[in-house]
């Protein structure tokens, strides 16, 4: 079910992207720092800005993801230690049973 949903979302996104690119064919001049300029279709310029934004967002969230992965590794290590302690305690003979 999730696969079908993902396919539909990707198809709708591609459809909107293609129609947006076809409706915005006019060229734009984009000026950069140090006198650099680029001339090209508006849709490509917007797509480049979107890709840059996605990259910046990914890099901004990367620190949090790495921290969460470290916490997960630490929690798994503690879980293994606790499970080993439980196994050791179960292996001990019980002498003082009433």
TrEMBL record:
InterPro entries: LapA_dom. The keyword Transmembrane helix applies. Residues 23-86 form the Lipopolysaccharide assembly protein A domain. It holds the Pfam family LapA_dom. The chain crosses the membrane at residues 45-66. One of its GO terms (cellular component) is plasma membrane. The keyword Manganese does not apply. The lineage of its organism: Bacteria, Pseudomonadati, Pseudomonadota, Gammaproteobacteria, Acidiferrobacterales. Keywords: Cell membrane, Coiled coil, Membrane, Transmembrane, Transmembrane helix. This is Membrane protein. Residues 65-92 form a coiled coil.
């Amino acid at each position: 079910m999730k696969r079908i949903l993902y396919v539909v979302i990707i198809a709708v996104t591609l459809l909107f992207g293609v129609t947006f690119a076809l409706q915005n064919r006019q060229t734009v001049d984009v000026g950069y720092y140090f006198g650099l300029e680029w001339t090209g279709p508006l849709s490509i310029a917007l797509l480049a800005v979107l890709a840059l934004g996605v990259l910046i967002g990914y890099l901004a969230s990367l620190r949090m993801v790495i921290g969460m992965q470290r916490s997960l590794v630490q929690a798994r290590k503690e879980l293994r230690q606790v499970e080993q302690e439980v196994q050791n305690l179960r292996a001990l003979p019980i002498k003082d049973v009433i």
